[in-house]
Amino acid sequence: MDYIKEPEKMLPVRYEADVFVAGGSCTGLFAAVRAARLGARVVLVERQNMLGGTATSGLVNVWHSLKDTDYKEQVIAGLTAEMTERLVKCGAAYVKDDPSVGICFDPNRLAFELDRLAAENRITVLFHTLCTGVLTDEENRICAAIIENKDGRSAVKAGFFIDATGDGDLAKYLKLPFYRNDYIQPPTPCFFLHGRTGNVDIGRLIKEHGSEFGLPDDFGWGGGVPGVPDTELRADFHIFGKQGDAAQELSYIEAEGRRKAYALVELLRKYTDVPASVCALSQSAGIRESVHFETEKQASGRELLHGERYADAVLNGTYRVDVHDQDGAVTFKYLNGDAVRIFGAAHEQTHWNWRDREGVTGEPAKFYQAPFEILVQRKYANFIAVGRMLHADREAFGALRVMVNLNQLGEAAGTAAYLCLDGNTPVSSLDGKRVRACLKKGGSAL
Questions:
Q1: In what order do the strands lie in the sheet with 191-194?
Q2: Full-prediction pTM beyond 0.85?
Q3: What angle do CA 55, 59, 62 make, to 5 degrees?
Q4: What are the pLDDT digits (tens) for 369-412?
Q5: Using CA atoms, how far apart are residues 264 and 261, in angstroms rounded to an integer?
Q6: Alpha helices in 41-154 (DSSP H)
């Protein structure tokens, strides 16, 4: 690679804050809100034109249930529950007892409500803004983030920094150790389809005729959009073999997702009576996985599936282990022992019981937990990376990477940021039980 030298220049400090958050997904925003409600001044930057990340820009309009696996007890609270109540109240969401779709919402209304949430908590939000670097001092503390937007290149000074970019952009600038799995769960670009397809077996059509339109026999799914008639989310295809944190490959993922959306419309128009059309394309593909940053503890699939409990738990979850493979199949494992591997567009299935295979006895857990330790790194006193870059084995990652779980980890990160600042404590020395207690006091843990 050839290099050129960028001339040195003085950067204006446009903002000063207690907490700086890079990434405005619900994970990042909820971190910002929790810190702000505790009294911190927060600046948040987001590269897209809206908050919400995959839930809004990605059009993935489903969250998993906030109840235990029996649907008898609510085990997840906090800002996900608060936002669900707001959406239900205005007719933009519905809630049901279902392992796949506990909450279904209109992503456009969610984006609007997230704007309101940020404003209510006096968070300074900058859209169309990238964090392009960080500055550190000789004591391994971050002192400023470098940002670029319509105002040019400038700096934000803060006392604590949260990386909620998904791909760990700030963590990469800091050269923290990371790894990639031997294969990366592939992304799914989504779109909204207009047209009544209730009587159409889209998966069977793709299996039988998809190759005519350059569509593989690939696992996918779809569903309605509350408040938007004759419109459904389509998530029918993966993009294989590309990394979502590499510029050229990410560009391919986005363009190929749009091609496949229109190819599906052409298939429906040819082989059905549905006057199908694309009515909305996602602004960002649903990236499932890229890199993972090492922390004090790696989340364990075995501990998760066995319902391990932690004194410093900052997350309760019920979403199953959900691993997307490179062959167009997906594997689900549930806490009660049920397991299924689903192949291709027609959803052909193989079932087994993982508890029986492993000789596990006793009552299965009704929900699982994750400890604060999975967010803690030791090198930088005032930094947390939170999101899908989490340190987890394949099975734990398959469950924890989904939005409701990452939302909770975001709230934990924002709470930890405040506690570190308030007590002048390095994040590596912060007692996770204090984080949990503060979350409970603020209504974000049960």
A1: 221-224, 231-235, 191-194, 277-281
A2: yes
A3: 55
A4: 999 999 999 999 999 999 999 999 999 999 999 999 999 999 99
A5: 5
A6: 78-89, 107-120
